[in-house]
Design brief:
Elements (H helix, E strand, L loop, with lengths): L5 H8 L1 H20 L1 H29 L6 H20 L1 H29 L5 H20 L4 H31 L1
């Protein structure tokens, strides 16, 4: 039996912290789902601030590289980021609606493409690929059918679910590392 790789040994030594991280993530995810509207609005505002700051930096960069032929594109992209960030921070409800519409469209289109791709190529686990595409498409339909109301809770709920799933993973990894010791 060979020895465990060094990174795994180091990770095993900190499995207690991994367990704590998992518990914290599950707690934060539960809070996010319970306060989905507040988390959605806060997420949109944070995203807006990040966009605005990135836009200001890109505009400054465009002025620093004026002689370059791509400077105008940087300037326009930076201005777009500043405007989008400003709108998202001052109108977070509209920002959440825009992001939710994009998510619905993404789920609809990616689900349809995944089903079409799975049907067009004979690969192993094709049924699972079709199932995944159908689930994505149905999620898109559900989100779309609930607009504009879903814009209030969707982002916060998805963030909460992601935190909970990451927490479960961290806890299960912690237990697996302890068991392997």
């Amino acid at each position: 039996m060979s020895a465990a790789p060094a990174p795994l040994v180091a990770l095993r030594q900190h499995s207690g912290w991994l367990l704590v991280l998992g518990i914290v993530l599950i707690g934060l995810g539960t809070i996010a789902i319970g306060s989905a509207v507040a988390v959605t609005l806060a997420s949109v505002i944070v995203l807006g601030v990040l966009l605005a700051v990135a836009g200001v930096i890109e505009v400054a960069h465009a002025f620093r590289v004026r002689p370059w032929s791509g400077a105008l594109l940087h300037l326009l992209a930076g201005l777009l980021s500043v405007v989008a960030g400003f709108l998202m921070t001052t109108k977070p409800l509209a920002g959440s609606l825009s992001l939710t519409v994009l998510l619905a469209a993404y789920f609809l289109v990616s689900g349809a493409f995944r089903v079409a791709a799975a049907l067009s190529v004979d690969l192993p686990q094709r049924g699972l690929a079709i199932f995944g595409g159908v689930v994505s498409f149905v999620l898109g339909l559900l989100v779309w059918s609930e607009l504009p109301g879903s814009a209030l809770w969707l982002i916060g709920t998805f963030l909460g679910i992601d935190l909970i799933l990451r927490g479960w993973w961290a806890i299960s990894l912690s237990f697996a590392l302890r068991k392997a010791a």
